[in-house]
Amino acid sequence: MEKLDDLERKVLRIMVNHSKLASKQLSIEKLCQFTGKREGRVRHVLIVLEQTGFIAVTSQLPFRYRVLRESEAPRYGWERMNGHVTQKGHGKGHGFSDRI
């Protein structure tokens, strides 16, 4: 079972939090803006997230995705706490960096 690296977790956190707050999906350009990474790196992260089962990409042009529900996504040591998915052992959501 492979763990996600920091950028992969960050992108997934952004996607999960945005899907809860907004009805409009994020574009790749917005993900680049929020992460400070170039498009190629963000696209690579999206491929990893899809291959590991955290998101389902439904369209490339325009980019459309679906964040999988907790029951659909692999566990990877993540638990749901206070409406957010946090990594085991990191306490109870101490700020944005602990949430996914």
From TrEMBL:
Residues 79-100 are annotated as: Disordered. It comes from the Bacteria. This is Uncharacterized protein. It comes from Paenibacillus albicereus. The lineage of its organism: Bacteria, Bacillati, Bacillota, Bacilli, Bacillales.
